[in-house]
Design brief:
318 residues; Arc Repressor Mutant, subunit A; 15 helices; globular; disordered N terminus
Length: 318
């Protein structure tokens, strides 16, 4: 006999109701509720589906159910390694339930397990007013910068500068909230006289990356390190022979496999949010440091280029 949504046995469902209560539709309704406390539909779906899953998917499902709060903090690579599976298997499990990918799964888990206010900003608490909110947000940014500074490797920074200085041309990739960071980096390199091109369109990224070679340096900005478009573009560039630099959060991610050098940032908001917040401050600090070190590698030439840029821009100001 069919099992109702509350776990009890009931009358057979009509075809219309069966379609309405399919896993994909239940997840969609839950996403629209965005934080309702009525229960954990995604975990319920995972529990009820166990018997119907193949061994690898069942192993991933079991881990998610047991360590749901930890999974919210993981990258897809972490989960794949912890379950002796592949990233493709993780995505495949998500798609069984009409979920596009692992990031969306984490958002659904967070909406069931986390205080709704923390979906707005990681460090907020119920009842916080404007004063408390501003203090917590500034504290989060300060902590992100301090932790990123500790993570910044002098050796990695030196290698990144060497790659950029040796390249005839630079390409910078970023998608979503990382796009403006990529554009800022490209503009800053341009002011130093580098032949820098910023690509924030996913189709153009792939084509442009495939056309690179050993003379090109590619910098990819991605907080999660798991964005499909930028990971693909970086892989294509690396395979074409380009030297690749990644700016991403600490932790294992698909992006790192295709990078010759990685500059790490530290921020915690990807636990519950689809977009980064304090990570952008850390990313800006990283690119500011990277550009400054590139300038210091040849101070005389850099100062001349910066003065030229200043003169040109002066004509655009009253």
């Amino acid at each position: 006999m069919p099992v109702a949504r509350d776990g009890t046995q009931g009358r057979p469902l009509s075809a219309k109701r069966a379609r309405a209560d399919s896993p994909k539709r239940i997840v969609a309704r839950h996403a629209r509720r965005a934080g309702g406390r009525a229960g954990p539909p995604i975990l319920t779906l995972l529990r009820q589906s166990r018997a119907d899953l193949p061994p690898t998917a069942r192993r991933i499902r079991d881990y998610i159910e047991t360590y749901a709060e930890d999974v919210i903090r993981m990258s897809i690579t972490d989960l794949a390694e912890n379950t002796s599976s592949s990233e493709g298997s993780v995505v495949g499990l998500c798609q069984r339930f009409g979920i596009k990918g692992f990031q969306e799964l984490k958002i659904l888990l967070a909406r069931d397990l986390v205080e709704p206010v923390r979906l707005i900003q990681e460090d907020l608490a119920e009842g916080d007013g404007f004063g408390e909110a501003s203090e917590r947000i500034f504290a989060a940014h300060v902590a992100s910068l301090a932790e990123t500074r500790k993570l910044l490797s002098k050796e990695a920074l030196e290698r990144a500068v060497a790659i950029l200085r040796d390249a005839k041309r630079c390409e910078v990739y970023g998608i979503g909230s990382s796009g403006p960071i990529a554009e800022d980096l490209g503009y800053r390199l341009l002011q130093l006289g580098y032949d820098a091109k910023v690509v924030v369109d996913s189709h153009v990224q792939s084509v442009s990356a495939a056309m690179t070679d050993r003379s090109v340096a590619v910098i990819t900005v991605s907080h999660s390190g798991s964005t499909v478009e930028t990971v693909l573009a970086t892989r294509l560039a690396h395979q074409a022979g380009a030297r690749t630099i990644g700016i991403t959060r600490l932790g294992k991610s698909p992006l790192q496999r295709h990078c010759d050098v990685v500059l790490y940032t530290a921020a915690n908001e990807t636990r519950y949010r689809p977009e980064a917040m304090s990570s952008r401050v850390a990313q800006l600090a990283i690119i500011d440091t990277l550009v400054t070190c590139c300038a210091l590698a040849d101070p005389k030439a850099s100062v001349a280029k910066l003065e030229l840029s200043a003169r040109v821009l002066a004509e655009k100001r009253f």
